[in-house]
Amino acid sequence: MEGKMSWTVADAVNYKGFPADRSKTGGWVPAALILGIEISERLSTMGIAVNLVTYLGGTMHLPSSTSANVVTDFLGTSFLLCLLGGFVADSFLGRFKTIVVFASIQTLGTGALALSTKLPNLRPPSCQPNKDCKEANGFQMGILYLALYLIALGTGGLKSSVSGFGTDQFDEKDEAEKTQMSYFFNRFFFFISLGTLMAVTVLVYVQDEISRTVAYGICSISMFISILVILSGTKRYRYKKSTGSPIVSILQVIVAAIKKRGMDLPYDENLLHENSTDGLRIRHTNQFRCLDKAAIVAEGDFVKNGSGSVSNPWKLCTVTRVEEVKMMVRLLPIWATTILFWTAYAQMITFSVQQASTMERSIGSFRIPAGSLTVFFVIAILLTCAIYDTLIIPMALGLILSTLGMAAAAAVEMKRLSVAKSVGGTTTINPLPISVFMLIPQFFLVGAGEAFIYTGQLDFFITRSPKSMKTMSTGLFLTTLSLGFFMSSFLVSVVKKVTAGSHGGEGWLADDIDHGRLDCFYGLLAILGVINFGVYVVVAAWNKKDDKASSAMEMEMEVEVV
């Protein structure tokens, strides 16, 4: 019996619900099948996002600021829905079923988007000479939004579970498999960047030169094939049982602490409630003591059951559970200071693409699609991944690079506007006699910054979160992307309103960027980046000091990717 058990993985089961056989389940082959669906997701989401602004302006005839906000709201919602996807996976479906269900939703979304670009009634008529272009009506935009937000819903469910299900295929208690898991995690970002690379080159070219319907159809077919591929490995996967959502655990601590806010903490911390075993116990710390009240034992905290009595988790929580919530709270300052990076990132796939569409993009007889300028963005990411090393410093460097990228963008836009003014703007000559390759520095700087920020953030949130909340910490990390995109939409709306009376009445963000001052908007983001970096330095120093003061918790800080 002992020999047989040595071939099983203790915390995983096979597709029939029996203990997973190590020799028949898990490993690199199943993990590779899972990785394929993430590549397809990147191909779809980024292939649509990086070139959507040109479709919204050129075909749907939306103003430049409105087009930018549609894109950033779409991406912001995609990443925000990762929290929903994680909750569904942890509480109900499990990771495998969540991936299949949400991948199917994304397939429907890309199919609907392909249909919306094909049918003439779902887009406004082409612009006529010497006449104002007719903007898309509510029904046409409604169909487009339906398609986009189906894709966003699919993306949210997929991203919350794909990396976790991939690492489920390795047993961290086995040294050989633990090494394989580490390798898988380190290469995960590299492979999704390859998916992005295909999106911004091949797929964007198909959109511009062949047909958007064909391009979006490719996305739908690619995701459908990926679903079939991941289903083919059903018998080979290892499945981890759902243990409930950590969001509920956090809420229980907060609710219990609020209910007992009027009670005094005991003089001896050992009088606080604790029933965790020594191996899983986290020692009490003195920070955020208001949360400790959730662990005060009071009358009515226990309810009887068949074998005795148990605590009501909405009234009484263990010290370990409270400390887990404290650990998540400690992540929030770093979390907040990385949001602005993704606001800068959003400009690369909105206004920077609009800049590119007005500039000379020809190499011989070949004309580079405006959205394909983001290839320099992806190249910077792939190159930077090769030199990524430590934790806090790369995150700081990512913030610095994004600020420099915005400064470079402002300088280039000043030059582009001067050329547009000298020739009378794109209404008299198109494209402008200025090379699109002048945009490379801003794409490269922000792209390199993304590699540092993305991997640095992911490592930080995973290694600094409690073991029971690794999935939650990944979702928390992804919300920085979401809030960064939403902040971009907010800033665009505010700047457009505040500057509406300046620069000839059209403000910084005019409907036609040749008549606005996009350089001032980029400059504003650069200034905000400098301020944000200063706050980050203070927060990082506090976080480092807190690490030294909380060395008793380091046994809980081991790297575990979920």
UniProtKB/TrEMBL annotation:
Q: Which GO terms describe its molecular function?
A: transmembrane transporter activity
> Its Gene Ontology biological processes?
oligopeptide transport
Q: Which Gene3D superfamilies does UniProt cross-reference here?
A: MFS general substrate transporter like domains (1.20.1250.20)
Q: Identify the GO cellular component terms for this protein.
A: membrane
Pfam assignment, any one: PTR2
- Keyword rRNA-binding in the entry? The reply is no
Membrane-spanning intervals of the chain: 74-93, 100-119, 139-158, 188-207, 213-231, 331-348, 368-388, 395-412, 432-454, 475-495, 521-543
Subcellular location per UniProt equals: Membrane
Is Aminoacyl-tRNA synthetase among this UniProt entry's keywords? no
UniProt-listed PANTHER family: OLIGOPEPTIDE TRANSPORTER-RELATED
Family listed: Belongs to the major facilitator superfamily. Phosphate:H(+) symporter (TC 2.A.1.9) family. Belongs to the major facilitator superfamily. Proton-dependent oligopeptide transporter (POT/PTR) (TC 2.A.17) family.
Q: What is this protein called?
A: Major facilitator superfamily domain, general substrate transporter
